[in-house]
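Quick one:
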Amino acid sequence: MSAFLDSTPALEVAVENVIGGRRYPIAGESLATVDTGYAGFMGMPSDAFEELGFRELELDKRALVFANGERTESEGSYARLRIKESGDSVYGFVETWRGLDEVVMGTDALSSFKLEVDYCLGLVSIQRCGGSRQP
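Output:
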């Protein structure tokens, strides 16, 4: 099910640490807000990041600059993102940073998909470009 959180499009997703064999959430899906202003793959709150066991791995660090000019550092690792509506999964860099309090899906995660947002009907749909699927 796609949804809107206030006026922000959101998708049901699950994130998997394929090395550590952990999943967030453990059962079902979490709503991830779609943020086309975020060029990254996926951002997660620190507690969700820890549930995935990423702190047990060597993490990459990245510098982030927000639209307001504020700078911060993120830390992250690679994971599999499963998108419930389309049935697809993609791999990418999942990161966390101080102050992040929601799961955010960025343009790097969306780059292989057709995303349709219909504010009139309150619908969000997603499907892989060209109909192919990645395991």
